[in-house]
Amino acid sequence: MAKRKLPRTPYLNPQFGAAVKDFGLSFLKTQSINHRGSKGTAREGVLGTFFREQLPGRYSVTEGEVVDLYGRSSPQLDLMFYDSSVDFPFRTAGADILAAEALLSSIEVKSKLTKAEIEKSVKAARKLRKLKPFGRPLAGNDVGMKATGKKDSRYFHCLFAYETDLSENNWLESEVNRLKSACGTGHALDLVYVLDRGLIHVGHSIGKMEDGDGGAITNFYFSILNFIQREARRREATPFERYTQSAKNAWIKV
Q: Pseudo-torsion of CA 107, 64, 45, 220, nearest 10°?
C-alpha cells in the first residue's frame, strides 16, 4: 500500500518571506557603516537573531572557534550551532570556543559573494573539516551518507551571502559552476544561500531560485534544522574532561 502523504499548508511562508525582506532592509541599513569589521558583525548579528528566534529551545547559536582533542582549531565561524541541553562553549576573553564534539552546523556570512571570497571560504571550510571529533576524522563526503558509528561525526557547513557579483541573468548555473570549480572534488561547503537570489546545494550541483514567499530561505532553514536534529541524536556525550590535564597530585585516602 502506498504511503499516505501528509497535507501541506503555506502557513509559514509569510514568516519566511518577511525574513527575506528583513535581511534586505538590514543590508541597506548597514551600508553606511564604514568600518568593515563593524559592518560584518552587524550583518552576522541579524542572521544570528533570526536563527535564535526560530530554532527549538534546546539548540543554541553563537560565534567563535572550534577546537579538537589534538589542539587543532577551526577558523573563526560566524554562526555555530550546538545542542545546549548537553553542550556548552568555553568562554575565554570574550570569545566562545566549542569542543569539536559539540559543533553540529556552522554558517559563514558574506556581504558579497565573489570568486575570491568563495576561495577564502573553501580554504576555511577545509581547515574546519580537518578537525577530529572524538579523535576520529569526520564521516563521509556527503551529509546524507550513513556513518559507520555514533562517533563518526558530521558537520553541515554553509555560506549566507547578502549579495553576489554575478548578474541575475543565468545566475544559478553560473554560481553553481564557480562553486564547483572552487570546491573541487573534496567536501567543503554544503549549502550556499544568496539573499533574493536563491539556494545552492553544492555537493549535488542543484539549486532553487528565491520567490516572493521566501521558499529558498525556508529550505535553507529547515535543511539546517533537520540536520542538527538528526546529528544531535547520533552524537555521544562530549568528553569535556579530556580537554583538561589530569591533576598532578593523586587522591589521598584520609
A: 20
